[in-house]
Design a protein that fits this description.
Pathway: One-carbon metabolism; tetrahydrofolate interconversion. By secondary structure, this protein is of the alpha/beta class. It is 32% helix and 17% strand.
Length: 281
């Protein structure tokens, strides 16, 4: 078993971002990354702090717009529309999860040119039609993991636990575009047997999946995140049996840092080509 070390990937991405920012003009540096948060989800709070801190590191302007979840759906809709209409907001995100399902439609308020996290249904329509040049940050993060270990997904049995709009759905779309048909495990509960070559999880349920319930040789990519006793933990229980597994991208520390960097690359309009993550043999 090998734990995925994201540091090589993050170093490469950091350098590309720094090189680009160093060449930006003063007017380009005035562009603002807008971050909209509805409510007070503690996991969201931690991710937003990481995003703002990372932007500050490179002199990228980021602004948080925090909306009270007790506002009506219409008031929240009006606020989000107004924020994205600001000319200085050249790209932005709505931090997930939202506090209630009736607000899911606000994701479609993100203008196509400003949708750097690919949250709007309209963005995915363009992507499916080949009219969208950027890719979902979570998909890019997963690809970095696959490239690191030279994993060929074709012919693999891939199970996805968590059908969320931010992780599960984009990853499934990408896999289908590559001719791979993943299976969603919508009703997975702790103790269920999990048989796959690759398991990708993003439920936000702490330590949902135990290694002893997974078949030998399976690799695990954990996008899940929740807070237990003040500490961030993933969907996969790293304290469970793991020696029979192949590669594990843990949470925290695995996909999160990569997703953040790819989000910023989308904001800056950077290309993803010529990124060599392959692990030395």
């Amino acid at each position: 078993m090998e734990i995925f070390d994201a540091s090589k990937c993050t170093t490469i991405l950091d350098q590309r971002i720094k090189t680009h920012v160093d060449m930006l003009s003063e007017s380009d540096l005035n562009n603002v990354l807008g971050i909209i948060q509805v409510g007070d989800n503690p996991v969201s709070e931690s991710y937003i702090k990481l995003k703002i801190k990372y932007c500050q590191r490179f002199g990228i302007r980021a602004q948080l717009f925090k909306l009270d979840q007790n506002l009506s759906d219409q008031e929240i809709t009006d606020n989000i529309t107004s924020i994205f209409a600001r000319p200085e907001i050249s790209g932005g995100i709505i931090q997930l999860p939202l506090p209630r399902t009736s607000l899911n439609g606000v994701l479609n308020l993100i203008p196509l040119k400003k949708d750097i996290d690919m949250l709007s249904s309209n963005t995915w329509v363009q992507y499916d039609e080949g009219k969208r040049s950027i890719t979902s940050p979570v998909v890019l993060a997963m690809r970095a993991f696959l490239d690191t270990y030279s994993i060929d997904i074709h012919g693999m049995s891939i199970k996805i636990i968590g059908r969320g709009r931010l992780v599960g759905v984009p990853i499934a779309k990408y896999l289908l575009s590559q001719g791979v048909n993943p299976e969603f495990l919508d009703d997975y509960t702790t103790g269920d047997s999990l048989k796959a070559d690759l398991a990708i999880t993003s439920t936000g349920i702490a330590r949902l999946i135990k290694g002893e319930n997974i078949n030998e040789g399976c690799s695990v990519i954990d996008f899940g995140s929740s807070i237990v006793d003040g500490k961030t933990v993933g969907d996969f229980d790293l304290s469970s049996k793991t020696d029979h597994l192949k590669f594990i991208s843990p949470s925290p520390g695995g996909m999160g840092p990569l997703v953040l960097r790819y989000l910023i690359m989308n904001f800056l309009g950077l290309e993803y080509s010529n990124l060599d993550f392959q692990q030395s043999q």
